[in-house]
Structure formats: C-alpha cells, structure tokens
Amino acid sequence: MQKLNDILVLIDSYIGSAWWFPYALLGTGLFFTIYLGFPQIRYFRHALRIVRGKYDKDTDQGDATHFQALATALSGTIGTGNIGGVALAIHLGGPAALFWMLVTAFLGMTTKFVEVTLSHKYREKDETGRIAGGPMYYMKNAEFKVGGKKFKLAWLGGIFAFATILSSFGTGNLPQINQIASSVFASFGLEQWITGAVLALVLALVILGGIKRIVQVTEKLVPGMAILYFLGALAVIFTNYENIIPSFISIFQDVFTGSAAAGGFLGANLAFAFNRGVNRGLFSNEAGQGSAPIAHAAAKAHEPVSEGMVAILEPFIDTIIICTLTGLVLLSSGAWKDKVSNQFEYTELDILTSKFDEKKDEDRARLYDYLVNDKEMTKYTGDLEVNNGQIISDVTLVHSRSFADNVEVFDENGPYTGSLEVKDGDVIDPDRSIIFQGESLVHSAPLTAEAFRRSFLGKYGEYIVTFGLLLFAFSTAISWSYYGDRATTYLFGSKYIFIYRILYIVGFFLASFADTTVIWTLSGITIALMTLPNLFGILLLSGEMKTTVKEYWEDFKASWPNEKTPE
Asked: What is the rounded distance in angstroms from the CA atom of residue 421 to the CA atom of residue 428?
C-alpha cells in the first residue's frame, strides 16, 4: 500500500501539486476578473437580491431554488478545509498565508461566476426528467472554436465526469467520515465504527431521496452549522479582544516579506506563505474545480447568468467570512505559535544528528533553512537510546515543524527503556507500538480545537470544533454524493445511479475505521483531472461568456425596466 501511495504522490507532483497548478487557477481567475470588469464587486448586491427570489418567475425550470442550490454547493465546500485547512495554512505559512487565501477567494468569485453560468446554460434533463448539469455538459454541448475551426469536447467531459466520481469518494466521502470518526473518538471515546454506522444510516436516508431531499436537508443544515461555528468563534475572539487589532495587522504586515518568527513558529518566506495560502484557499472554496456548478445547474431559472451571480457569493461566504473567522480565532488566541502537549505523529517526526538549542539564533536559522528553504540537514541513523521514557542519545527531535520539548517515550507498559532503530531521521516501528509525547506546535483540526479552548468556554470550546467538524464534513459528503450521481448519469445513464449511491454509503461506513492515506493522495490527482479540463473549457468559451452576460442585462432591463442595473 505504501508503494502505491508513493507512486500516486509522484504522479500528483507533476499535476495537482506542481508549482504551476496554483498559477493556472489564479491566472484564470485574474483573466476573467479583468475581462468581465470585476463582476464579483459589481454584481454582488444584485446576487443577494437573486438569492432572495426577487426576480423569480413561475415558469423557471429546475429542481431547486437559488438559495437551495447555493446551500447545497456551500455544503460541499464548507468542510474540513474551513476548520483544519486554515489552521494548516497558518501553521505552514504564518499569518501572511491567510492574506493569500483571501486573494485566492476574491479571484475565485469570478471563476465560480463563469463556470456556473456556462454549466447552467448547457444543462440537460436525464431520462427521469431530472436536471443534469455541470462542466461535462458544456463540454458536450457547447460549440468550441479555435483558429476558425469548430469542435466538441464530449470526450473531455467524459474525463471530467470520471474524475468527479473518483473525487466524490476521495474528497467528499472517505476522508470526511474518517476525520469525523477520529474526532468523535478523541473527544468522547466512541468507537469509530459506531460513528460510521450511525452516520452511514443517516446519509442513506438523505441521498437515496435524490436532489429534492438533499436540498431540503442542506438548506437547513448549512445556516445552522454556520451560526453555531460563528458564535463559538466570536466567543474566542472577544475573550482575547486585546489581540484583535494585532491579529489583523499580522495578516497584512508581512505579506510581501513572509511571516516573521513568533514563539515556536520559526517563520516563513514569501514563496512559502504564498503557496500555502493559495493551495489552502483553492482547497477550501473549490473555485475552478467544477464541482459546485453541478449543484448550481439544478437551480430554477429561465437563463443561466442569474445562477452564475449567485455562485459569486459562495467563495465569499466559504473563504472570506468563515476562513477569516477561523484565522482570527487562531491568531487572537495565540494558539498558532504556542507549543502544546500532544502525541507525536510518526510522519511529522524528524530526528536530527546532534543537539540544537532553540534559544540560539544560529540553531533556529539552521532549522528554518531546513524546513522552509529545503537546505540539507544531517538526519540521525542508528540506535536511539531511551531510559525510563527519557531519550539519552545526543539528538534533536523536530515535530510538526518545531523543536520538540519535554519528550517522553512510552510503550503499552508505560515509560519505555531500550533501543529504537532510526534510519534517516525516521523511527522504524511498523506497528507504531512506541508512543512519543511532548510539547510542539500542532496544526489542522487539533490546532483549531486548542484555539477554541482559549476562551470562557474552556474545554467546551473543543466540543464546538468537534460538532462543527461533524456537521461540516457530513454536509460535504451529502453534496459530493450528488456530484458523483450526476457524473454517473453522464457516463452510464440514470439507471446506474442507485448502484453508485449504495457503493457511496458502504464506502462511507468502511472509511470510518480504515486508513485513507492513499485515498487522500488519489483525490489530489482527481481534483487536478477535474480542474484542468474545466479551466481549459471556460477559457475557450470566454467570448461566449461575455456575450451571454450582455444578453442577460438586455433581457433583464426588458423584464424589470424600473430596476437599476450594475452593468
């Protein structure tokens, strides 16, 4: 399994994790932002009116209202990335990474506008009369032109749809329940399989009812979970009110220099902060990936542009509001730079030759160069001597990109005494029977949980994160089931939807207690295989997009002559 994962990591390094991938996404968003005249600003208020149903007509066709489609799309994007993804970005890139997440969201608002408009424009009805839409349908039905030659891209739509099915498992299903079950076990001690079984049953009750039941659930679930998380976050921020202004300043002051060192955080240069902020931002709001247009295609409308405008709100809510809120919780509480007691992950543990002193600037600088600038560092190889839980070998332990302090070693019987084999800085212990505990930085959901504890809520703040993670991740699983449902329809027809849903539910249960490392890696590849065809398609249709928007305003003024238009 490890060899398979290594092969997938290598493949992903050339596409989804390649240096050029974020620039392709940002470049597309920047191009359309300029080409269409900053629609995310000009059309924002108009989009709010559309969501409220102000311009709805009785003859509009679709399976969901504008608000239901937005809620379903948001339930797919608001997930673990909002709780753990922001914490990971700040852990890696410092406060400056949050700025680049916001820039990514701002440009992503336009990308969503374009991809949703085109997907809605070329949607179809399947054999059962239900709406079927998404990027694969504009690839199939639109007329592309290059150098005067006309052609179709139905084959590219097939690649996109196949990647969507794989992503529905790799992004929206298996990792989500795995994180839910692990979080519930850590907070309440409930066995993972029990959590998996209960939620798999609830998931079945929702998704077997199709899009109408899905939108009925998400339109209630999304506002509820957002309000809960919002109130919990405000409790942390106002408990640490004296740090609110310094937190805002820290986001912007090191934008073009990288984040300075603070506490256990060793610092990050501009490139590092930029890459981590952009990557986490893209993961959070999925702009350009082509997933959300599948949900928006179901919206009732007599033309496509109005739903495209509704989609502008999605990255704003998901990233600019919720991710910023999480960022302020982390920064105002100080948790992002403080070492806390935790059990070390083997994958994040490095054992370095010779002792380093964190108080010495030259030793901190050497570790910074190793972690941020990829400079060579001599890693320990040999026997690690431990006596009564204390490491007596002359080494330095680095965990979660920080110097590890007060490290103790345990086995099932208590404090460990003996020798451990170490090779190139890694402890060789296939069974993971030896436990390393100590103080270091933490990241992802554990970091957010630590920040939520630093308020008047105390330990109850951790429960908000656990419950929020459960709701966010579960709602993501609901939405992605619909994305895979529509992709299955495109490739195989609607008669195979039931088989897909059963496999989705079974996989959801099994992943609650299984290792999903390979699935996470595979999802990185499938996300890229969704994104690249989608970006290619919308760029080829840029001229048609501009014409479609122009036609929308002409029709709108004819239907609503007394309304002011932000053209």
From this structure: 6
